[in-house]
């Protein structure tokens, strides 16, 4: 499997992974195909995931700039088409309390406002006619052991006080009776505004909206060189060259090794693994009392997350392999299946029918960054969603469009700070290995 820390290209015109989403979503919408002749453009966007498509859409709609999107493989081939499809009010991994401690309450509230606006934008775009199999609103965060429940209660009260956030506190008995009888869930808090979607169909919906606004999307067109000549950005693909005024890097966790100095050694791509079971029978669902279609995540350092899909399958996800070389080892899918069976003992005979993985993008300071390159004011990027990018990537793309057009952005660390470089970047995977072992011990004993 493609590994961004080792490979210089994600491939050319590769098909979608054998995921559940690819199996149920039908045919991808038509695009403009491979770029085969040299062109000029005002803006070139590299990457056709949520960020790139949102940037292109908002450039066209709000700034009358028709961007050209270049994609190595297919629209949403990367994490945008592989994720679990959780729409949440979150960004990065930095807690609100830590933001307040670092930057003060005003900045923290500014970031919260951006997060909320991102979810609102997703909702408004879906309402334009995107068929993404949106499920019932609700995000349940479960305590994976009894000692974690009090922390969730404190979190709920804090959010209620800080944001007047609508958060329900749910006891273990109530959770098991009214939502699902997860034996590893010891109480929960429930947010009323998260929901699940088909992430690949969502991305295809963004693609259609962008194309309707005049955006050209060239798939099968990997960027093999990005240089500057006479003040212009020169983007070289296998069959043609684009000369542009400005370039947007919207590749996030799939950014190839040494792709551009502005983001080199500033991210850590981490594999997330997902399985989807065979459809459950009504008897199996009743035995688990699996009543909810809400999205669910636990309190582990190495989190598990799951949801019941519209066809009564269970999607279950967690961390994957450390390197791309090991990504398809069945150990990681089987480990998730074993945890699912621990949570729901009635499912001992259930198997998974789909298993796949994808790269999420970690930043050193646990927040995304949307900015101009330090060494080139005509190169822009948005990266570092830390696994929470399904909704915020749309906001990041919208803000990228603002920044590319010269509009001033809110004075927030998301937009006024560069991606920090990892110390000793050659050892990033060693640090990741160490954190995984620490997390396993923490989740078991503390």
UniProtKB/TrEMBL annotation:
One of its GO terms (molecular function) is oxidoreductase activity. InterPro entries: FAD-dep_OxRdtase (IPR006076), FAD/NAD-bd_sf (IPR036188). Its EC number is 1.-.-.-. It comes from the Bacteria. Residues 42-402 form the FAD dependent oxidoreductase domain. It is an enzyme of class 1 (oxidoreductase). The keyword Cell division does not apply. Keywords: Oxidoreductase. It holds the Pfam family DAO. It comes from Thalassotalea psychrophila. The keyword Oxidoreductase applies. This is FAD-binding oxidoreductase.
């Amino acid at each position: 499997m493609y590994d961004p820390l080792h490979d210089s290209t994600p491939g050319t015109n590769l098909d979608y992974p054998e995921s559940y989403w690819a199996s149920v979503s039908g045919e991808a919408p038509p695009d403009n195909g491979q770029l085969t002749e040299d062109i000029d453009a005002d803006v070139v966007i590299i990457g056709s995931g949520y960020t790139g498509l949102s940037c292109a859409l908002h450039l066209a709609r709000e700034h009358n700039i028709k961007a050209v999107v270049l994609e190595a493989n297919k629209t949403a081939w990367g994490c945008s088409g592989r994720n679990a499809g959780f729409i949440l009010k979150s960004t990065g991994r930095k807690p609100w309390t830590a933001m307040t401690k670092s930057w003060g309450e005003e900045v923290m509230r500014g970031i919260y406002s951006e997060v909320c606006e991102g979810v609102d934008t997703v909702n408004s775009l879906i309402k334009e006619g995107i068929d993404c199999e949106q499920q019932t609103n609700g995000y349940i965060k479960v305590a994976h052991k009894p000692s974690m429940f009090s922390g969730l209660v404190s979190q709920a009260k804090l959010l209620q006080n800080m944001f007047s956030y609508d958060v329900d506190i749910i006891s273990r008995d109530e959770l098991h009776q009214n939502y699902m009888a997860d034996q590893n869930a010891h109480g929960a808090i429930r947010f009323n505004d998260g929901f699940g979607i088909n992430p690949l169909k969502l991305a295809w919906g963004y693609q259609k909206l962008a194309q309707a606004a005049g955006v050209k999307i060239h798939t099968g067109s990997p960027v093999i060189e990005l240089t500057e000549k006479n003040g212009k950005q020169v983007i070289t693909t296998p069959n043609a060259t684009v000369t542009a005024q400005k370039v947007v890097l919207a590749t996030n966790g799939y950014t190839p090794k040494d792709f551009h100095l502005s983001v080199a050694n500033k991210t850590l791509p981490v594999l997330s693994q997902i399985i989807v079971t065979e459809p459950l029978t009504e008897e199996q669902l009743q035995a688990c009392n699996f009543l909810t279609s809400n999205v669910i995540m636990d309190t582990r350092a190495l989190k598990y997350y799951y949801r019941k899909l519209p066809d009564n399958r269970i999607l279950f996800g967690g961390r994957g392999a450390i390197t791309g070389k090991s990504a398809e080892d069945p150990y990681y899918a089987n480990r998730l299946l074993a945890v699912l069976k621990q949570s729901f003992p009635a499912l001992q005979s259930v198997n998974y029918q789909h298993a796949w993985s994808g790269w999420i993008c970690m930043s050193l300071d646990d927040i995304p960054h949307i900015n101009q390159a330090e060494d080139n004011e005509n190169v822009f990027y948005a990266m570092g969603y830390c696994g929470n990018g399904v909704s915020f990537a749309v906001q990041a793309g919208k803000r990228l469009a603002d920044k590319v057009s010269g509009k001033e952005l809110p004075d927030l660390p998301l937009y006024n700070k560069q991606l920090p470089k990892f110390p000793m970047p050659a050892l990033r995977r060693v640090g990741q290995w160490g954190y995984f072992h620490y997390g396993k011990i923490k989740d078991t004993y503390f």
